[in-house]
């Protein structure tokens, strides 16, 4: 089944404790992206990747890192999480950056205390 | 002015009603227009995709794009309780690296 898989689905952590949210897609998509979704603010892009080893900042990149060493994987790294990073996170992939719809993962609900 | 504006609702209709969901946008470079449906605790799923202006129909769903007015719509005919969800419009242009810009979503509730 074509899908984007995120792990974990739920995570509660403490301020400053480094964490990684994994994202993997099995559709051979070139483009991958991370979004956060907050009430009243909608979906906002954190980082994106046009292809392997090509990443760039989205609208809200502060406090996040990403890497794209393989085409299928695009992990999101929070080196020192803070409470304002409490949010619902979605990974998405697409065949290309434009002209195609995005396939989203099921989401990761992160709480930083 | 925000790039994409979408009425958040909530919108409540009886089963069988025709539903109209709308978005306006400001960036004339947008060429690709989409509607996503998001159920509670799930990721958005692509519902409709339209390139440039015009209409597209898929079963009970019709997407319309009016680029001259910078206005897009999604119509749902014979709405069902299973259509209860949040509907997000999304759009971007041709330039590589251009993010898909989302509206904030309209929450729809269809009662039986």
Structure description:
Chain A has 113 residues and is mostly beta strands. Chain A has strands spanning 4-7, 10-13, 19-25, 31-38, 42-51, 54-57, 65-66, 76-78, 87-94, 103-104, 108-112. In chain A, the strands form two sheets. In chain A, strands 2, 4, 5, 6, 9, 10 and 11 form a seven-stranded mixed beta sheet that branches. In chain A, strands 1-3-8-7 form a four-stranded antiparallel beta sheet, with no helix packed on it. The termini of chain A are far apart. Chain B contains no helices and eleven strands. Chain B is globular. With 112 residues, chain B is mainly beta. The chains are: A mainly beta (113), B mainly beta (112). Chain A binds chain B through residues 4, 33, 40-43, 45, 48, 50, 56, 58-59, 90, 92, 97-99, 101-107, and chain B through 31-32, 34, 36, 41-46, 49, 51, 88, 90, 92-100, 102-105.
